[in-house]
Amino acid sequence: MKAIYPGSFDPVTYGHLDIIERAAKVVDELIIGVLVNSAKNPLFTREERVKLIEETTGHIPNVKVKTFEGLTIDFAKQNGANLIIRGLRAVTDFETEMQIAQTNHSIEPEVDTMFFTTSLEYAFLSSTIVKEVAHYGSDVSKMVPPAVVDALQAKK
Ligand code: ADP
């Protein structure tokens, strides 16, 4: 089974890594898709985001990192993936995620979405929160891997 895990990953957090590690155990191949959205203004470039994910997932043999633009469902099809992985933190994620999953399934019935519920210790974590905390100089070492701590420091 081949799966994609799409997201902005600006930057990757321990919440994402938890989902990546768990998903990699249940699929044969996991492609992390870094979304390049020209309408968004990310803190990290696409190359930086890819490098940070590669550095922190290097120990998982069946994980690959790619970038994509446009629709997630097209990225899944281009890569021959039959599964989309998403993480759910709280009920607030559920409504939009369900809508996206149903849309994708109606466009391409061969591709399904599988949700992993967040581990409790990461339920509050988002890339936005991490950037905010780091911006004001607080410690983010419990939220992101060391390479990301350094990269955030370098952006200040
Ligand atoms: P997007 O901009 O598509 O929401 P993100 O990089 O914020 O991209 O998230 C990618 C995926 O990871 C989403 O499915 C999101 O719900 C999930 N995710 C993000 N943070 C966490 C977390 N702390 N625990 C579990 N899943 C998470």
Give an overview of the whole structure.
With 156 residues, the protein is an alpha/beta fold. The chain has helices at residues 14-26, 46-57, 72-78, 91-107, 127-135, 146-154; strands at 2-7, 29-35, 63-68, 83-88, 112-117. It has a five-stranded parallel beta sheet with strand order 3-2-1-4-5, sandwiched between helices. Helix 4 (91-107) links the parallel strand 4 (83-88) and strand 5. 32% of the residues are buried. Bound molecules: adenosine-5'-diphosphate (ADP). The site of adenosine-5'-diphosphate has 16 residues, from helix 1 and strand 4.
Essential attributes:
156 residues, single chain, binds adenosine-5'-diphosphate, five-stranded parallel β-sheet, alpha/beta, 6 helices
Q: What topology does this entry show?
A:
Elements: E1 2-7, H1 14-26, E2 29-35, H2 46-57, E3 63-68, H3 72-78, E4 83-88, H4 91-107, E5 112-117, H5 127-135, H6 146-154
Parallel strand pairs: 1-2, 1-4, 2-3, 4-5
Distance between the termini: 41 Å
Mean pLDDT over the full residue set: 96
Count of DSSP H/I helices: 6
Structural class by secondary-structure content: alpha/beta
Helix content: 40-55%
Strand residue content: 15-25%
Helix-strand pattern, N to C?
EHEHEHEHEHH
Contiguous uncertain segments of 5+ residues: none
Ligands bound to this protein structure: adenosine-5'-diphosphate
> Could you tell me the radius of gyration in angstroms?
15 Å
For the biggest sheet, the summary is: 5 strands, parallel
Number of strands: 5
The coarse silhouette is globular
Give me the side-by-side strand order of the main sheet: 3-2-1-4-5
